[in-house]
Design a protein that fits this description.
Layout (H helix, E strand, L loop, with lengths): L1 E3 L7 E3 L23 E5 L4 E5 L4 E5 L6 E6 L3 E7 L5 E7 L6 E4 L5 E3 L8 E6 L5 E6 L3 E6 L4 E6 L7 E4 L5 E5 L3 E5 L4 E5 L8 E6 L5 E6 L11 E5 L4 E5 L8 E4 L6 E11 L5 E16 L5 E6 L4 E5 L4 E4 L1
C-alpha cells in the first residue's frame, strides 16, 4: 500500500512494503551482553570505531582487518563520535559508574564530561565545525561542551530520556528524540517539544539531511499493541511528509550518505532509501542491527549487530568484510 502525505517537498513514501516482495527471513537471536550498540567511521586516519556491552571501545583500520587501538571502559558504550577533523573521540556510556568522556588519540588521555545524568547518556554528536559537542542524557538534558570538554550549556528539553540527537548542517539547530521530538535553537536558547506519533512511543534515531531541508526519525513502535516501528520523514519546520512501516523491529539508527542521495537504516537488516522515500535495497536481512555509519567518502557503511558482529558493506549492501 502506498501512502502520500502532503508537504512542502511532496515526498511519497512506501508504507509497509518489503522491497522486491522477498520472503521474510528469521532474525538471528542474540544475548544482551553481546550487543554492539554503536559505530562511527572517520577520524584523521579514516578508521572505524565500535562500542557496546563489551569491556572496551575498539578502533579498527579502514579495512576492518586490524584493531589499531582499544580504550578500556567499565560500562555499556551507547555512542561513539569522531571529531570532524582532529584526533579526538567522544564516547557516551550508561549502566555503570564510569562517565562519558573525550579521548585524545595522541596522548591517550580520557577527559570526563561533567553534569551528565548518573544514569548515563545516549545522544551524541559534534557540531559540523567541530567547535561544540552535544550530549543528550537519560534524564532529558541536552548538554553542550566546547572542544576541550568544558560545559557551555545544560538545558532540559525532553521529559524523559534522550536517545539520539542530530545537528542541522548550519550548526544552529539540534534535534533530539526520546518520548517525542525536541528542537533546540542555539541562537535564542529556546526549544520546542512535540509528539512524533498519535500514541507515544520510544523514539530511537534522528538524522538531518545534509542539505537541511528535511530530517528522518525512527522509533521502537509498540509490539504489544501491534503498532509497528515507523521510519518518518519531516520537513525542516517539522511537518510530517511521510512514513514507512516495513521494518519488523525497532529502527535503531539512521544515517544519510555524505551527498544526501541515500538514507541508511539499521533494524532487521540494513535498508537504503532515496530522499523521496523509496526503499531500494535491503541487506543482512537475518541480522538485528544497531550501529550504523557511512565511510566519509560515501562508498561503504559500517554496521554492528545485537550478537556482537560488525560488517562493512558497499553501496549495494554486499558484505565486504565482517568480524
Amino acid at each position: 500500500m502506498r501512502q502520500t502525505i502532503s508537504g512542502p517537498l511532496f515526498l511519497i513514501l512506501l508504507l509497509g512494503v518489503v522491497s522486491g516482495g522477498c520472503r521474510t527471513v528469521a532474525l538471528k537471536s542474540y544475548d544482551y551482553e553481546d550487543i554492539l550498540w554503536t559505530a562511527d567511521w572517520g577520524g584523521p586516519r579514516n578508521e572505524i570505531v565500535t562500542g557496546g556491552n563489551s569491556p572496551d571501545v575498539r578502533i579498527y583500520s579502514p579495512l576492518g582487518n586490524a584493531i589499531t587501538s582499544t580504550i578500556p571502559t567499565s560500562n555499556t558504550v551507547t555512542g561513539v563520535a569522531w571529531h570532524p577533523g582532529k584526533e579526538r573521540l567522544a564516547v557516551t556510556l550508561q549502566a555503570g559508574e564510569e562517565g562519558s568522556f573525550l579521548f585524545d588519540l595522541r596522548s591517550g588521555e580520557k577527559r570526563y564530561l561533567d553534569s551528565i545524568s548518573a544514569a548515563g547518556a545516549r545522544g551524541l554528536g559534534w557540531s559540523p565545525d567541530g567547535e561544540l559537542l552535544a550530549v543528550g542524557d537519560n534524564d532529558g538534558y541536552l548538554l553542550l561542551y566546547d572542544y576541550e570538554g568544558r560545559l557551555q550549556r545544560r538545558r532540559k528539553v525532553e521529559p524523559k530520556g534522550i536517545t539520539a540527537l542530530s545537528w542541522h548542517p548550519d550548526g544552529q539547530i539540534i534535534l533530539t528524540v526520546g518520548s517525542g521530538i525536541a528542537r533546540y535553537e542555539l541562537a535564542n536558547d529556546r526549544y520546542t517539544h512535540r509528539p512524533a506519533r498519535e500514541q507515544e512511543v520510544l523514539m530511537l534515531s534522528v538524522a538531518w539531511h545534509p542539505e537541511g531541508a528535511l530530517y528522518a526519525t525512527g522509533d521502537y513502535g509498540q509490539p504489544d499493541k501491534k503498532r509497528p516501528p515507523y521510519l518518518q520523514y519531516w520537513s525542516a519546520d517539522g511537518k510530517l511528509i511521510g512514513r514507512d512501516s516495513s521494518s519488523r523491529v525497532e529502527i535503531r539508527n539512521l544515517a544519510w550518505s555524505p551527498t544526501g542521495n541515500l538514507l541508511a537504516s539499521a533494524s532487521d537488516g540494513i535498508r537504503l532509501w532515496t530522499p523521496g522515500g523509496e526503499q531500494i535495497r535491503h541487506g543482512l536481512r537475518d541480522r538485528y542491527l544497531w550501529g550504523l555509519a557511512w565511510k566519509p567518502d560515501g562508498t561503504r557503511l559500517i554496521t554492528t549487530s545485537g550478537d556482537g558482529e560488525a560488517f562493512i558493506v558497499d553501496s549495494r549492501l554486499r558484505t565486504v568484510a565482517g568480524w
